[in-house]
Write a structure and sequence with these properties.
Length: 169
């Protein structure tokens, strides 16, 4: 059973790393395109800066869940090395519980923010996936699409910290 769970964990980890790679490439691509269009062709797109910022935000929140999962977040390793091993383990586990609590806060308030978010990005068209396929809407992209990363990142961070916690128990 643990072998199966570890294989699922590795798969999810690879998917999250792939998503981070895609967002990083998108951020660089949007920036290069925007700079080229602005300074070479003197015709910058209205959506260039927004997509760069959104790619960065989504990248950082997904990377947060990976650092919680891999226990690579900012830690006081120098202090942990000087403490007895048992005390160090308890402190590390305490911080994993705190990260889980932060993830739960992100879920709760992120859902509240997404549900209450009003307004649209005038620069962006958007699409919906339905039974008929992908439909591009003539209206502008709702702002709640951009902040939907908060509850998603909260869930991924909580699960990642829980996995890291359980592996050390």
């Amino acid at each position: 059973m643990m072998k199966f769970l570890n294989s699922i964990d590795r798969f999810v980890h690879r998917v999250l790393e792939g998503m981070c790679s895609i967002f990083l490439a998108a951020m660089v691509g949007f920036t290069l395109y925007n700079v080229t269009m602005r300074y070479v062709f003197n015709n910058p797109p209205v959506w260039g800066d927004l997509l760069t910022v959104l790619s960065n935000i989504w990248l950082m929140f997904i990377a947060l869940s990976l650092t919680a999962r891999d226990n690579e977040h900012v830690a006081l390793n120098l202090i942990y090395e000087k403490l007895p091993e048992r005390v160090s383990l308890y402190i590390r586990q305490f911080w994993k519980v705190m990260i889980m609590i932060i993830g739960i806060v992100l879920i709760i308030y992120g859902i509240e923010l997404v549900e209450g978010m009003r307004g649209k990005y005038w620069e962006m068209w958007y699409f919906e996936i339905s039974m008929q396929g992908i439909e591009f809407k003539p209206n502008y992209m709702p702002k709640k699409y951009a902040v939907a990363i908060l509850p998603l990142a909260g869930f991924l961070t909580t699960v990642g910290a829980a996995i890291s916690f359980i592996k050390k128990v």
